């Protein structure tokens, strides 16, 4: 009898690679990527006031390269926690704990420990969790436990696989141009590691919602940071959809990394132009208009949603 269920075995089959299937990349790739980032962004940040730094993350890039009008709005809007937003943070913490749990983990227990830990660790969510009314706390606990349980049921038990070198909430940062630019990111789960210049690491982001093409771009961005930091790219990138117990895997190539570099340069350039008021923000309607805080006053978004058949809402990226 297999120790893994069908969904767990599928993860092993889709992410596993023998030593000879772990890629190497062209010599000088990391050097070339660093150089391209530097040359592409040097003129863009040349006029920043002394001491000012542009902090780039996946959210900034996906926002500015999506609807620019919403990007500017979100930049100026104070951030508010809510149960749907907090759900992912708590579930990820619970999953992190499960990797190091010494007994068979139970989702509700993990979530309680996660809420307790996050309430007191001084993180941005701490105050929200400490002051959460009982009904909302119960809702958050229930939703986060569902996500954590989906991971426990669908992913191979990582606490029994130390040889896979699991690491959770892995942060990456790359600072350049005398500190004027900082690229940072945090991947939910990393498995494996490089062996010399032979790539072996897999980056996995855990997703509680539906599929979205930005998920692949986010992972490519992490892969770029990893490459310019260490010189060796990860070998594969995967989004794991908890509600479906499904992986979407992309194998890293030099082209993927060059494309990620172009996206960073294009995103930062556009962001600085918009913030400086040098260009008018474009309205770019998409399915995301459904959740946009500007929708009630946005004619472009409203017209786009009205013209898009309800059935298409479920298949558009
Ligand atoms: S409703 Fe759509 S088009 Fe309008 S600002 Fe929001 S995202 Fe942009």
3D structure, described in words:
This protein is α/β, with parallel strands linked by helices and 317 residues long. The mean pLDDT is 91. The longest helix is centred in the last third of the chain and has 22 residues. The chain has three domains: 186 residues, no CATH class; 76 residues, no CATH class; 33 residues, no CATH class. Strands 1, 2, 3, 4, 5 and 6 form a six-stranded mixed sheet that branches. The site of iron/sulfur cluster (SF4) has 13 residues, from α4 and α11.
Helical amount: 40-55%
Shape descriptor reads globular
Unreliable runs = none
Q: In total, how many beta strands?
A: 6
Number of domains: 3
Mean pLDDT: 91
Which ligands does the model contain, each kind named once?
iron/sulfur cluster
**What's the helix count?**
11
Distance between the termini: 39 Å
SSE sequence, one letter per element: HHEHHHHHHEEEHEEHH
The structure class reads alpha/beta
Largest sheet: 6 strands, mixed
Radius of gyration using CA atoms only: 21 Å
Which strand-content bin applies to the residues? Answer: 5-15%
């Amino acid at each position: 009898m297999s120790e893994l269920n069908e969904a767990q075995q599928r993860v092993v089959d889709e992410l596993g690679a023998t030593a000879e299937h772990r890629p190497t990349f062209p010599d000088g790739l990391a050097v070339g990527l660093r150089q391209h980032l530097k040359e592409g962004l040097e003129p863009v940040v040349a006029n920043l006031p002394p001491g000012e730094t542009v902090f780039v993350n996946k959210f900034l890039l996906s926002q500015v390269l999506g609807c620019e009008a919403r990007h500017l709005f979100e930049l100026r809007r104070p951030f508010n926690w809510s149960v749907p937003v907090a759900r992912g943070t708590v579930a990820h913490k619970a999953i992190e704990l499960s990797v190091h749990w010494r007994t068979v983990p139970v989702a509700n227990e993990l979530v309680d420990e996660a809420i307790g830990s996050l309430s007191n660790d001084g993180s941005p969510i701490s105050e929200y969790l400490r002051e959460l009314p009982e009904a909302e706390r119960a809702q958050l606990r229930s939703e986060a436990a569902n996500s954590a349980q989906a991971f426990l049921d669908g992913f191979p038990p990582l606490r029994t696989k130390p040889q896979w070198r699991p690491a959770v909430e892995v942060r990456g940062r790359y600072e350049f141009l005398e500190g004027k630019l900082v690229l940072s990111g945090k991947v939910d789960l990393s498995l494996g590691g490089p062996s010399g210049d032979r790539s072996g690491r897999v980056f996995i982001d855990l997703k509680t919602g539906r599929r979205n093409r930005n998920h692949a771009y986010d992972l490519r961005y992490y892969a770029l940071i990893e490459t310019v930091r260490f010189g060796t790219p990860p070998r594969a990138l995967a989004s794991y959809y908890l509600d479906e117990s499904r992986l979407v895997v992309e194998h890293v190539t030099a082209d993927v990394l060059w494309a990620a570099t172009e996206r960073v340069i294009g995103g930062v350039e556009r962001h600085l132009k918009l913030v400086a008021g040098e260009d008018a923000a474009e309205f770019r309607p998409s399915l995301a208009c459904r959740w946009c805080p500007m929708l009630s006053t946005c004619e472009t978004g409203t017209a786009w949603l009205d013209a898009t058949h309800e059935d298409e809402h479920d298949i558009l990226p």
